[in-house]
Amino acid sequence: MSSKDVKKLIITLIILGIGINILAYIGKNFISRLPVTRSTDLTPAITNLTNLLSIGIVIIIIVLIPVYLSRRSDEKKKTQEY
d(Cα 58, Cα 18) in Å, to the nearest integer? Predict the structure, then answer.
């Protein structure tokens, strides 16, 4: 996996995190407008699920940043050797 692939993966995960938060925001607003009384029980569940997914994505991004930096330095070393 080259540094460009890791960089694209990090950017994709950032976009995925933003998309999840936008969908959760839309879902919370939609559910809160429902006339059913049980809809208020779903709002904290959606918030907690969104937070869990966001934390997981951030952890994966944090793990991938050193991998990206390592791959990039390896590629620079290879180009300097030739």
Answer: 11
